[in-house]
Design brief:
Helices cover 68% and strands 0% of the residues. It has 77 residues and is an all-alpha fold.
Length: 77
């Protein structure tokens, strides 16, 4: 539960930083995912972070219900 909440908080902070960067009058370069993505912070970056916040939220909900995400993923294989 602690790790899931920490991941959710971290993703929320990243989302806040991306939204702040988008509001700046100049383009911001971050290379957040290295060579996998665009170097500029774009609306796509914000939507990706929204998706990651959602996944972290699902992890918190699963941990709170007593069903860790790791065991669910293991059950898929």
């Amino acid at each position: 539960m602690v790790v899931a909440v920490a991941a959710l908080l971290l993703m929320l902070v990243y989302l806040a930083l991306v939204v702040r960067a988008l509001r700046l009058p100049t383009d911001v370069d971050c290379a957040c995912f290295g060579s996998l993505g665009d170097e500029r912070v774009t609306a796509g970056t914000a939507w990706r972070n929204v998706w990651l916040v959602g996944l972290a939220g699902v992890s918190v909900a699963a941990a709170a219900s007593g069903s860790p995400v790791a065991s669910r993923v293991g059950a898929l294989g």
